Each structure stands twice: as structure tokens, then as C-alpha cells.
Amino acid sequence: MAEQKKLVEEITSMDVDFTRWYTDVVTKAGLVAYSHIKGFLVYKPAGYALWEAVQSHLDARFKATGVENVYMPLLIPENLLAKESDLVNGFAPEVAWVTSGGSEPLQERLCVRPTSETVFSDFFHSDVQSYRDLPRVYNQWCSVVRWEKETRPFLRSREFMWQEGHTIHATEEEARARTQQMLNVYADFCREDLAIPTVRGQKTDKEKFAGAEATYTIEALMHDGRALQSGTSHDFGTKFAEAYGIQFTDRDNKLKYAAQTSWGLSTRIIGALIMVHGDNSGLVLPPVIAPTQVMIIPIQQKKAGVLDKAFEIEAALKAAGLRVKVDASDKSPGFKFSDQEMRGIPFRLEIGPRDIANGRCVLVRRDTREKIECGIEEAAEKLQGLIPVMQKDMYERAKKHLEDHTWTAATPGEFEQTFAEKTGFVKAMWCGDRACEETIKEKYSVTSRCIPFEQEEIASTCVCCGRPAAKMVYWAKAY
Amino acid sequence: MAEQKKLVEEITSMDVDFTRWYTDVVTKAGLVAYSHIKGFLVYKPAGYALWEAVQSHLDARFKATGVENVYMPLLIPENLLAKESDLVNGFAPEVAWVTSGGSEPLQERLCVRPTSETVFSDFFHSDVQSYRDLPRVYNQWCSVVRWEKETRPFLRSREFMWQEGHTIHATEEEARARTQQMLNVYADFCREDLAIPTVRGQKTDKEKFAGAEATYTIEALMHDGRALQSGTSHDFGTKFAEAYGIQFTDRDNKLKYAAQTSWGLSTRIIGALIMVHGDNSGLVLPPVIAPTQVMIIPIQQKKAGVLDKAFEIEAALKAAGLRVKVDASDKSPGFKFSDQEMRGIPFRLEIGPRDIANGRCVLVRRDTREKIECGIEEAAEKLQGLIPVMQKDMYERAKKHLEDHTWTAATPGEFEQTFAEKTGFVKAMWCGDRACEETIKEKYSVTSRCIPFEQEEIASTCVCCGRPAAKMVYWAKAY
């Protein structure tokens, strides 16, 4: 136990310093390492396996809605990026430029894609002629580069991995419906696969994506009470089609501009997983998404038959469809326990000589540390039953945390006091004026997270200027 | 039928102009489109789906041998690239350089990865201390950039997708064994999943990878008799460890340099699939790898019940584990037939009003065009039986083509005559001298493809200089 304690003590407690706790978990759970370039991460096996799990779950959800995967070029010519003025103004300050290829300087510099609206639009321009060519519902999995000043693993990197969906439709109504549909896919994925509750809503004009008519978002609440934008879906109307000349002949034989959307979810979501579910022993992964669900830890593994039995149980659990590993390293059981806890593996199965003699083993839940004794033969069935229970419990705890940290402020005084005393979301009325948003940001270091779809009438006046209110907004400090 | 003929006529016949046939297939089967940057492709849904199929089959084979996926940064600092002199000399002329990030020029320029030995070695340098940390068997799926002068879809691009495996071991023996093991994984994958036979062997020093002690290769033979290097596996010995200072404390408590390997297979393999199996109607995909295995084509689909029955059959085939689609577009059956043939979908299932009345349908094999009539109820079972048969037949035809186009030349005269009259591989003896390799390349425009593992004693003297022979080599014109 001394050894186990020692290992656990290596993580800063989240109550002492949440930022250091986060960095400790990210590195000690073996997710990433830093490279020689600021903001460019090395994804180690445990970190990349999490991203693979996100990909496979989300990709299946996409394909169920008719999404087709494609791949667009990594580099974008400057003139192509410049065609849509809002987009280029939004992204130009943070792109990386390639200026020579081989030993020769390039005639036109190329940027490493920060996002691919421009290349998709350029492709649609030549690929879409008739209403028969519509809709196209495309997605790509790739990495993008944005030259951020401040960087933190997963939350803000200069290179990050994501998926970017890009669709094109005959009507603006259809595009708007697709924008909503994909936002719902993200929210369902977060709730069902990641056990993360989110608030759905629309971004204010100040916070929306450069070039979008409207941006929709899902916002999650981290353990420290700060919000994390976890997925966004953009409705472009015909804005890009007009900039890139994407016209099609409709059924009525008239030439019309097509309507577009894009939507993205990135490796940021791994930051959300860590900060929603983690505890002072490390990561806690929801069993549905966990790359390894069960770690079998043999006790007194040098005694005859112990390791054999551990591998026998591994084979039986695998055959039952569980993702399972045996820690057969030459470390002590105490070390292995805390290592499994640090890595957030949802269950451990302890098996020693006495257990084997009795035909029993011990299961331990990572989230509650509850110990469940059961017969070796029934371990698979027991675990299959525990997975949905643990998944649901984790979601309920996260939902309670979100609800317990969502406040209401009716007046400027209440608004100020809440941010002075509490952490979390504050629901308050807003006049719709960008100036008030900026004042609020300056005064309290909080931003508008979204105008939620579920509106409430908390007061009749803006929490900043006192003029008539237009919308209820979720405000919070955010990552 | 007139319409079908017309569509088919759009492809250049491979006997008339193989290069144009290839380009026609690549674009008309909807695999890729060209972008505005030379050598950067747009992968359309059918092209990307093929790459996804390659990824899922190969990734499963990798993981079965203990490979773990990771992800390394896209950009590499110049000083890191420069540490291994052979590698930098090999790649410097063809890398793309990033010189500014955001609005600021960078202090040190960064190259877009052309391959990642340097970043993996740099990571291993800080991550490997003890024999307990070894081996590490890593792989990443990504795209790389090499500024090639001549480009052709899949075969040679400035950006291409691939996997690059990078492993590190305590002993050179273990590294060498891993190099061989992964070459065999590639050969098995080509044979079993792609129905492509390959010749296994070692590259000559002239043709090996920059920085490798030894490069192993699998070489396939295209329909026009030219060879395509389809996957390579490199044994680095301790060369990179010495350049990057990767030392570990071994069991004997001594500090030693670690041994490394790398191995890669790229989107080139899609070029091989096209040129090994394609015909004058387009692509022919082996059923094991085909993203869509069966296209259901309704005849007289406007008649009541036809489309319903087509979707009913689709559901039944899907439930049986087949990958299937219905072509319910408003095109004629003739158009749909030739479209399905162009796209290389292994089977089509024709279903019309008369078939429905009789409870029958017609299956057509893409490779032989054989028609098989069967009951609607037994279609799933029939197709499941046909898949391994068609896969095997395709492999056997490709193998026969390879064997029929492999020649033996014992003397300089025979060597010259064979290349003048035949296409394909020529097996001939070589003294081991680089000068002879260069002479042969200059005289006949052929390169040494590999020193095959299965050696034969064709003659006792070199086919170029007449001095004593060291090895038998496969020679060919190559892509």
C-alpha cells in the first residue's frame, strides 16, 4: 500500500491545483508526450487508442446518417483561402505557410489547412452541376494546424486531430436541418458513449465561426466549473456558394446557389473526458468508450497456476466480447492497482492463489472503487451487466455536477455576485447587443457559451445594460 | 445496350494505351479528382472507401502481431531531420518547408514530414531507458509530403496517405525478425485480401531506403508487365540509435544502442489493385476488400413492387453480413450495369417483375461476367459461396499472369533480347556491383526490383559484365 500511495501522490490533487492535476494526468496516464515544437503533441498508444475509440463510435453514427468519408489536400493555395473574406480574416493570422517545395521557392505560398471549407467549396464548384448531384454529405478525418499562442494538451494545440464534415444541399432548409442533425449526433455521442451531458444552443454572432450564418454548439462543464465547447455545427446558407460560384441547375431549370454546412469535433473531446470524469487517482474512462475495459491483475503471480489462470480468464472475457488485458509485468500488485487507476481502466479483476482455490475472483469498479466478489465462471456475465450500470452512473454524476453548477441571475447585481462566489454556468438575459457581451467579458472574464434551444424567461431586461432582453444566454469561464 | 456500349467506350482500351486506360479508370470510377496543386489529390467517396478497407484489413493484421498505433507531429524541425546524414541527403531535395506560422517568420524552418524516422527516433531517445522499455512496436496512419517532379494518381503523388511502422528493440536479431515479419504481413495481406501475388526479396544497396542497413520489398506485376513496389520493410540496425543517441541499460547493466525498423505501405497499393485486376470495362475489385460487394439493380423499377423487393433483398443480404447497395437512380438498367462494372463492384443482382413473379433473380460476377440464376431466398447463401471462389480465381489469374511474364536470361544476349521482345520480370544473375546495375538501367530502362529470397542458379556469370555472379536478381521496368 505504501508503494501505491506513493504513486498516487505523484498527481497533484485537483482541489489544490486543477491545472497541474490535468497536466499530471495527461502525462502520467501515458496519453501524450511533448515534442520539440510547441503545441505539437506525440500521441502515445493510450492517447491514440482513445482517439481511435472516438473515431470508430462517431464514424458509425455519421455513416448511419448517410455521411461518406473523403480526403482533401493538406495544403491550400493562398488565393483559394482568400476567396471568402470572413474566413480568411478569421484564419489568416494563425496559419502556417509553406513557401518552398523541394529546393525551389513556390510561386504561390500554400497554407497547411486550418480547416477545409475552401477546398471543399472549390471541389463542389467543379463537381456539382445539377440538383441530381445534391446533396453531398462528406466528412474527413485529418489533422489541422493553427498557430495558437497559448497551448495545452488536447485543449489548444497548434496541430490537432479532428473530423470536419462538409455538406452541400439544394435548399437552405435542407442545409439547416443537416446542421441540427449533426449537432444532435454530437450530443448523443457525448451522452451515450462518453457519459458527458451537454447544453445545446446557438453561438452569438461574436462567437460564431468565421464565415457562418449560424453556429450551433454543444457545451460541456468541466469538474472545475469551466465550460468546454465540445463540438460545433455551422450553417453557411449560400455564403460560400456565392464566394466560390457554386451554382446548380434546379428541377425548375433555374440556376441557383447551393447551401452548405460544416461540423467538427476534435481531440479536445479527450480533454473533456479527462476533466469531466477524472479524479485524484487519475483518469476514469466510461466503459463504453474505454479502449481497455478490464485489467486483470494477478496476485502472487509467481505461484504456480496464477498467471495461467489470469490468461485463461482473459481469453474467456475476450470471447465474451470484452476488451481486456492482463498486467503480467514484474511490478507489485499495489503498483499495478494504482497504474490501472491512473489509466482510468473501468474495471480490474484481481485473481490470486486463494481465489483460484475457491473458484472466485474480485472485480473493482474504477469510479466507485466498489468491490464485487464473484465466481470466476460468472465474471464475464457480471462485467457485461456492470458496464451499462457504470456508464449510467457516470453520466448521472456528471449531469448532477452540471445541474448543481448552473445558476440563475436576474439582475446585474446577482450576475456579478454569482461569478464572484460560484463556478459553472450562469443563465442570464441578454439584449442581443455585442457591446454588452464585450463588457461582460471584460468585467468578469466570462464568455457567452450559447443561446440555449431551451429558453427561459428569467427577467425582462439585459443583465448588463438593463435594456429589454432578447434571449437567455449561458455564460461561463471557458477553456 | 447502345447506352451501355457508349459508356464503356469512354474508357480507352488498355491494349491501345495503358496509361490513358489507367487515368480513365481512376477518374471515371469516381476514385479521385485533381486539385489545384499538382500531385495533391481529392479522394472521392469511392477512392477513400478503398483506402478505409485497406486500413481496416491491414490494421487488424498489425494489431494481431502486437502493433500499437500512435501519432507523431506533422512538422519536423530542420535540425532534427539533419541528424542522420543518409536520410537527410535522401529526402532534403523533396521536402516542403514551412517558414512562417501565424504572421511571424519562424526562427527555424519546419518541414512537412516526408517520413517519420527522425521524430520517432527523437521520441525513443527520451522514452527508452531500460531493456524493460523494449520492444516498442508502433505504427501511425497519416499522410506525408514529397515534392515529386512527375506525378500520377496513387502511383506518385506529392501528398500520399500511408502507414509507417516504427519499432525499437534490444537486439539487432529481434529487429531483423520484425522486419521480416512485417514484410510477410504485407505479402499475406496482398495475397489474401487483395488477390495480388508478389515476389519477396531484398533491395540492392542502390535501391534501398536512405539510412537503412537493408530494405526488403514485395514487388507486384501490373497488367502491362511493369513492376510496382508495393510495400517495404527496413532494417536500420543501430544506425539511427547512434545518430540520435538512443541508449538503454540492458539486463547485464551495460549501456547499449537499440536496434530499429520501419515499414510502410501506401495508397500506391490502390494503383496496384487497379492495374492487376482492371479490364476494359473498368475496375475489378476482389470481393474480400471491396467496400461494396453487391449492387442490386432493379429492372423496370417503376413497376409496382420492384423497388420494394430490391430493398427487401438488400436488407436480407445485409443481415447475412454482405456489403450491399441498391442503385435506385432514375438511369436505365444498361447505364447502371456499366456503372457497376466501371466501379468494379464484384457482383450485381438483377431483379425485375418477371423474376419477382418466379421468385428468382440473376447474379453476375464482375470478373468473368458469368450469370448465375438462383432463387431470391438463396441469394445470400449463393453470394457467400461465390466470394471465396471469385477471390481465389482472381488471385490465380494474377499469379498466372505473373508467372507467364517472368523470364529467365542466362547471357547478356538473352537479357537484351528478352527486354526487346517481352514485358515482365526477367530473372538474371548479377555480380553485386552497382556499376552493372547502372549500366543495365541506362541500356534497357529497367531497374533491379529485388534479390529474391528464393534464389536460383541460372548461370555462373553476371548478365552485364560477365564476371562471377553473386546473386540472382529480378529486373523489370517499374512504376
Gist of the model:
The structure is a homodimer of 479-residue chains. Chain A has helices spanning 2-9, 18-28, 45-64, 78-81, 85-91, 117-127, 172-193, 239-244, 268-277, 306-319, 333-342, 353-358, 379-404, 412-421, 434-444; strands at residues 32-34, 41-43, 68-69, 75-77, 96-101, 104-112, 136-145, 159-169, 199-202, 214-221, 227-237, 247-249, 255-257, 259-266, 294-298, 324-326, 347-351, 360-365, 371-375, 406-408, 425-430, 447-452, 471-476. Chain A is of the alpha+beta class and 479 residues long.
CA-based shape of chain A: globular
Secondary-structure-derived class of chain A: alpha+beta
Helicity range of the residues of chain A? 25-40%
CATH level 1 class label of the largest domain in chain A? Alpha Beta
Strand order of the largest sheet of chain A: 3-7-8-14-11-10-9-22-23-21-20
CATH architecture title of the largest domain in chain A: 2-Layer Sandwich
The beta-strand count of chain A equals 23
CATH topology of the largest domain in chain A: BirA Bifunctional Protein, domain 2
